[in-house]
Amino acid sequence: METIQQTRSRAIVLQDFESLLMELHSQKNNYVVNNYVLCQSGSADTLDKFSLNLSGDQLTDSITTIFSDIIISANNLNQMGQEFFESISMYDEVDNDGGSILETVVEFLPFLQKLEQFVYTTSELTKNLLLQIHGFLNFGRNEIKNHRVEQLPLTRMWRTLGELLSIFAVLDALILSHPFLREHWAVLIRSVRLVQFNPAQFDLEGLSTGRLQHLNALIERLDLVLMNGKILTNTCIKLKQFDQLSSDRQFMERFRLAIMQMLTNWEKHLNSSENAIPDKKRLICLLTLSKLFHHLLPERQRPDKKMISKLSGINKTLISFHLFADLLFIPFDFILKEIPGAAKVVDKKVSSALELTKRCQLNKLLENLCKYVQTFSSNLSDWQKRMHEEFKENEGSTFDYVKSCDLFIEGVHMGEIVDRLLKYILNIHLAEQKPISKANVRQIFVLIQFVKTISNTFISNWNSVIETINCGCVQLSALILSILQSIIQSNGESKQSFFANSLLNSALSLSQPIGRKTLIVAGVSLELANYKVLFLGQRNSSRKLSKTYKQKFQKTLRGSDIQIDETLKKLDILCNFGQVLSNSTDLSFLYWHRLSLVQAFCEDLIQEQTNDFSNVDLPGTINDFFSAINECGRLVISVKHCDQQTFLQTFSNELFLIITNNFLSKLCTEIENDLRLSYHQQQSSSFEQLEKLFSSQNPLQQEEKPLNKLLLNLLQIPRVKLGNRIIDVFDYVTNYLSSTFYNFSVIALHDSEAYNRMRILAKHRYGLNLEDYQLPTRCVDQGLDLITLLREEKMSKFLEDYSYDLDEQFFIERSSQSKQLAIVRVQQIVNSIKTHGIGILDPLINTSYKYMRSQFQLLSRCLSDEKLKSTLIREICFYRDSIDQLEQMYPMERAEKMTNSLKRYCHKIAGGPSLNIIERLRILIVRIGNIIGLLRMFRSGILETFAPNITFGFKNNKLMTDLINNNFNENSIQINCAKLCDKISSNIADYLTSNNDSIELLTSMFAKEFRGNNKFAHLRDFFILIPSLMIVQIEYISKCRARLSNKKMSVSGGLAVAGGSFNEQFVFVEDGFSIGIAYVLTLLNQQFFFNSINWFDSVFNKIHSEIIKCKNEQKLAFKAKDESLARLLSLKQSQLNEQLEEFTRLMYSLNSALTFLQANEVGDENIDETYLDDF
């Protein structure tokens, strides 16, 4: 009674805990998994082998204790085996992208060592159990008198022996069915042998040879014990070494009879009712026991034809079934391959008939799938109704606990049927590589929902279930005790003391708190007492009693053996009901079908528009499916070949990607299209009319189309947890629509009014709270809108029509049809950022990168011209040979000569006009410089836009934390929020105060490609081309300024002048050229090479000498009174002074550009400065 009171007290505590969790469940942000409390029912096992309260007979108690301990150990090994099975099956899901095969299999090696130890322990226990059975039978014949021990069935012992052998059978099947594991293992063996043969090749000379030999011996042992897939066969061969087993004919005959009796009982159970489930565990036990039996047979003795024929007849009722993971087990194949001599006994017609039956089985199953679903649906509804009535009756004073327990077992039985059907259908499709039709996939979804419904029914009433099971166990044990008490009293002082003491032991064990161990002791004691024969004998002996007592006694014993068997089975289920329910409703096997099922489910949600969309249970259906998929996480965390958290993250991302592509994205598109169509239908409506039209506060109260009802139901799906990710449909759709409406409003500001109305419509129709970003419209001095530069063609036209000023940092229009020229300053960039948001800069930088890449391609193509390359190489050779005579200054005469030569060489690129090559190169340099200037203005615009944030300073990185640190605990929510706020502030400060900008990013990107790459070797001669480019640039800018200062220009009468184009008329600044030259020099790392030719010194010396010479000639002309010559010399002198000013201005501009670009070093600039030695 104390145990029951403690259990009820625990149930009250759990009920309070459940109410607390239900409050969380009722909240909108719920993502708590439904299986929040899954505890074991029944009392804890307090039974210990040293404190057994048994009969007191030393012989009987010792035998009972030995067999009970072995069975308990076997049960523990079975539970451990499930963990090993999961880890081996998950190795097939290995991903080698992150590491090599050797790293993966070496990570798996410690697990294989544990598995080897587990196999050894199980093998030893198998050997001990078999020898104990043999010893007991021999001991009983000699020591236990007046007893026929050979008639004892010992069914539990034989079944336990079969369960231990079944562990080896499953391990063999898992290892042999995983090609990845076997292939990786072969790679490991080859690698270890190679290292052992030649350790010096792998820098392992310092490693002792003993350690290598030990590793090699370990791997060879693991290969021999585990990886050959013959664990069961090796175990049977080891047991054959005990000659006392094979030579004992009575034992072998008893072994054979036990197998035949168990097989008969299995078939009888299968034929007992239409809803009987084939016990696949018992079947594997029978097959493994048959294999062991035939291995123990003497070599000359033939296989047992009767046993093999009876085993082969199983294929008439059960062809194949799900074994583990994605494996199907075919009993007939096991008989042919594993049982010695079975291939000779089995008729070949049976094999051919089996192949034909396999092909027809799947089709027959799929044809009847709809009927199965309908049957399950009606049975489930009826069971739920009875469960509801039972829980209502539980509130009364009188209650039949045994009846409720039978109802619980019926639910578990129903869940196991559906679960097995799901496993078989999915795995047989996977094995035969056949796709599942849409109709069958929907039936599979319904079956999954059935399983989750059964599980949720128990979990939602778990407290009542626990209390009912505890009371039911007491009633059932009392029922068995009453039967045993009547038998014990009727026997009195029996001569068969061993059987009587065994019967007493069973009664004493059942009188203790019911647990798994007590039931094992009771079952072993009953079998040692041979209770079935005992009950039969008692019924026969009752004939000598009086008529009245005889009828009463026979009524008591009638069917008692069957009743005890059924009651023990119920107690075995009920005492471990939590684990039984978990196994019966386990959907973790969906892991091997997750991709196809999740994709089909998501597609079906969006594409299926013929269902009743007003079905309010749709969110629950979706939640059940994703809850079933989430059970796969139990398998994910069992991996041993890689990091569990990394594998779980991969699993979660994989599912999230499928759900996003097949469900969330399509749902967002459907809702967006619906909002757009609805808006255009009410396009002329005002805000007030829209408010009237959608005045209902509850979106579900509106009369909408069926599609809208479906979308509303899909939006009401609660949060779903998959792996370590949480999927919130409502938040995802809200974020998508907010981002989409914002992006379209930025691109087309004139449509911002339309998107504001769509936000109102989304609020009233779907309950979506979309954020209105309230982007400002244009200002008075708006200027250039950056949105026009998003396309590469528009940016190219802008850079051709505008010239850049490095000092004032603005772009000015080259020409205009009006009397004014447009100017783009940093303020216009700021206005554009404030209008469209900071997000517009990313696509602008991407467009700039594409444009700059195209210009570098043209530059590379021009410099790869053979004539130009030969000209540049000739100039370099000349400078190399006469560098001392030239005083390390490249002469201006050579530059002018090369310029005139290149002007006569026209170069045409496909799709462009024909220009001389030096002019084309100058234009490319100017465009490159202009794009760098534009990026510089972007950077300045960002800094000016966020100037208040910079003035704030962020000097204290823990400002918010320090403000509230004194008022709250260290781990409180407020402290965590303050830390997050400080982290955001620190990130903003780092971004605004750092020197990392788009120019440095592009420079580093292009520099890595150009420097040290033989593909761009022709660009190494660029520095020697700069003098000619400067001469052409000086001529160009001088002509433009001369035309601009020409007083005879007429504004009304056309500005075209021979030899120039219209776009050249108003150009007075062209700093894009100097920035372009500096940028290319920086990318190619040729600043030193250009400085080594001392070009500006050479130019200034040449011009100064020309000016002095001109002055001297002018003096001579004045002396000769030659006025015309003097005027010409004066004009020439002014031209030289103007040329000197232009070169000086260009030198300062180039130095400024180089200083700006060299503020941050890019790439590796430590290259050998021996460019002249290459020629």
Automatic annotation (TrEMBL):
Q: Which residues form the WASH complex subunit 7 C-terminal domain?
A: 978-1157
- Name-wise, this protein is WASH complex subunit 7
Q: Which residues form the WASH complex subunit 4 N-terminal domain?
A: 27-488
Q: Where is the WASH complex subunit 7 central domain?
A: 589-952
Any one cellular-component term (Gene Ontology): WASH complex
Family matches, as InterPro entries:
WASH-4_N, WASH-7_C, WASH-7_central, WASH7
GO terms under biological process: endosomal transport; endosome organization
